[in-house]
Amino acid sequence: GSGGGVTPRPRLRLSGRHHEELRRLLLPGDGVEAVALALCGRHSTDGHEYLLVHEVVPVPEHEYRDRAPARVSWGTDWLMPIMTKAEARQQAVLKVHSRPNGFEAFSQLDDESDRRLFPSVYGWTQDVPVHASAIMLPDGGLLARGVLDDGAFIPMDRIMVVGDSISVADAVDGESDPAPWATRHAQALGAGTASLLRRLR
Predict the structure, then answer these.
(1) What is the pTM of this model?
(2) Strands (E), the chain
(3) What is the pLDDT of residues 14-43, one digit of tens each?
């Protein structure tokens, strides 16, 4: 768990294929929120815990209890095989929900939802230092945060989508806004290449 030691700063990486899969599942055009989980491989280095999406699992349609433009609730009976797989592979769990109304921050309802879900996730995957929660906006952009085993949230300072182009969302340093996100896009052969490469390893 996170108790006592230094908490690694989470960063998220996903392929263009997984990003498009999430977009298709979570933003089908019906105007209401939807949810998917993703199982993530993990790599720790330089004080960061990198979560790499390996598999996307949508909430089954029959498990939704309520869906609206700014809220969603769902049952958990379908989670056991997913948690069993995460435990066996020591994978992190990423919860992603859509935000069709475009509100670019985690809400109090999001906080409550994450604090209900993730204690069970930690119960299944006891040696994983951090799991994560994300919001997908109408344009496919992502906001994300780590969720610790004590229910605390830790800002995610970088999200990277790698496909035919590379898209990086970095938290902005030195801003006081509670959701200090700025998105910079760089094509592999474009004006942003030099700036992009400075931020990659």
Answers:
(1) 0.82
(2) 9-15, 35-45, 48-58, 64-68, 71-74, 92-98, 131-136, 142-147, 153-155, 158-162, 166-171, 181-186
(3) 999 999 999 999 999 999 999 999 999 999
